[in-house]
Amino acid sequence: MAGKSPSTAPQATVYPGGRRVGPPASGGRGGNAVLLDFVLSLVMAVPTTLTGVVAYAAVTGGSPLGTGTAVALLWGSALWCSFLNQVLFGRWFGGSLGKLLLGLGVIRAEDGGRPSFWRLLRRWLAGLLLVPLALLAVVLDLDGADVATGGVLGIDVVHRRVPEGPALTLAARAALQEEKGERDRPPSQAERKARQREKREWRAEQARAREEREAREEEALERYARQAREQRAREWRERQDREREARRRPGR
C-alpha cells in the first residue's frame, strides 16, 4: 500500500532548541484514550476492592461488607488507580496506560518536554471535575477535546512516534490548526439561511426549466399531430381527385 504523500502525511513539531515531537493527536483519539483510561482504572480497582471485602470478612468472622461501603471502596480504589495511571505513569513513562496503548504521550505545550509532577497533578484534579463534561462535548463533536486531554493546562497529547523529514514550527502548527478550525467551523445561522435560500432558488429555477421543457415538448407533439392530420387530409383529397378523374374517363 502506498504511503501518504509528503503534503498530507502528519509532520513532527520542532520546538526552539531543536526538540522534535510527534504530531498532535486528534480530539477523537485523545477522547478514546480518556475513555480507555477510565475503564482501566475501574478494572485495576476491582482486585483491590475484592481484597478489602475478603479482609473485612476475615477480620469480622465472615460478616459481609455493606453494599454502600463496597461501592465506596471500589470508587476510592478507582481514584487511587487513576492517580497512579494519570500522574505517576505520565511522569515516569510520558503517558497514561490508555495513551501508551494508543501510541500517544503527553508533553509540555511550551517546549515539548515531559510535564512535571505538579502540572500532571493539577491536570488530574481538574479532569475529575471536567472530564465528564468534556467527554460529552467530544461525543457531540464540540470543542471539549482540550479539556479531556489536558490542553487547557498547558499539556498537549501527541503521537509518540516522531515522523522523519520536515517538521513544523509552533507558529506554523498554530496557523495550520487555525486554518483547519476555520475550514471545519460549522456554518453560522446567517450562512445556513443563505444556503437554504440558494437551495430554494436553485429548486425554483430547476422547476421553471422543467416546466419550459415540458411546454416545448407538448408544443412539438401538437405540431407533429397537426402536421400528421394535414398530411392525411391531403392524401384523402388526392385519393378523391384520382377516383373522380377515373370515373370521368370514357368507357366506364
Automatic annotation (TrEMBL):
In which broad location class does this protein mainly occur, judging by the first location in its UniProt entry?
membrane
User: Which InterPro entries does its entry note?
Assistant: Pra-immunoreactive (IPR051791), RDD (IPR010432)
Which parts of the chain span the membrane according to its record?
Answer: 38-59, 71-93, 124-142
Membrane topology term: Multi-pass membrane protein
Q: Where is the composition biased (Polar residues)?
A: 1-11
User: Where are the residues of the annotated region Disordered?
Assistant: 1-26, 177-252
UniProt key word Membrane: yes
Arranged from A to Z, the UniProt key words for this protein are: Cell membrane, Membrane, Transmembrane, Transmembrane helix
Query: Which first-to-last residue range defines the signal peptide?
Result: none
Q: Where is the RDD domain?
A: 33-136
Q: Where in the cell is it found?
A: Cell membrane
- Classification via PANTHER family: PROLINE-RICH ANTIGEN HOMOLOG-RELATED
Provide the protein name: RDD family protein
